[in-house]
Amino acid sequence: MLFNSNRERVEQCTSPEQARCPLCDDPLVAKWCEEGGRVNHWAHYPAKHGEQARTCPHFESEWHVKMKLAALALGWEIEVPIKLNGLKYIVDAVQPGVRAWEFVHTLDEYAVRKHSLLKEKRPHNVTWIYDGEMFVSARARGYMCTTTAGDRRTVYRRLLKPRALGMYVTTRGLIHYKDVLYYTDRQMLDRRSARWADWIKGGDPEHYELLKVAAELDFTRPADAPEAVRDKVEEIAIKKLVSNL
Q1: What is the overall mean pLDDT for the chain?
Q2: What's the rounded Cα separation, in Å, for the pair 58 and 92?
Q3: Domain coordinates of the chain in residue numbers?
Q4: In Å, what is the CA distance from 194 to each residue of 83, 144, 159, 162, 190?
Q5: What is the pLDDT of residues 20-68, one digit of tens each?
Q6: How far is CA 46 from CA 4, 28, 137, 161, 205, in A?
């Protein structure tokens, strides 16, 4: 988790002992990661011996963190708290007043409920990007084909595992696999038709800029420390301001 309930990064917080989780409101501990290739973040305290395990649904992979940091470097707000049907959720990346990105790495009960509600409440304002390393089926088969324009491209069949396919049918979106984004253009999409659909390269230039920035992040380099990422955001914001004058 990169932000606490007060929207503070670890390196920004002056009272880390008072930090709280934006989802469950439990106390957080600041994790300073100067070594080991990770980024500074907030974490829940481990349950003490004999205590019940924490039930907060927050979980992140390195892929998830890198995608959010890349969105942050592109000038988006990340980890934006919202309420849907009276429950707290965090939207991964938001371009204020325009649209949002959700980076899907897990499909536990919390994630499925969150993505289903987002699709129901904001059907045209959210783009889902799935981590192909987690969700691509072992039975996926890629083949080369030629378009009517004469271009050669890779097309996949049976791309997703059954559970991920079910979630994709609900949300649609893009599959991040082998540094490329894939989607299916089936109009009447259900589990059966999507299973055999052609999955082709998709996404707009901004999506590929996101992938490029994420791929270049290396938490072992000082240039990718949180302070440096924040500087990138400020530089981008200044350029946007100047361009609008």
Answers
A1: 79
A2: 12
A3: 1-58, 62-209
A4: 31, 19, 9, 10, 6
A5: 887 677 788 887 766 545 667 777 776 654 555 555 655 567 788 889 8
A6: 17, 10, 34, 32, 41
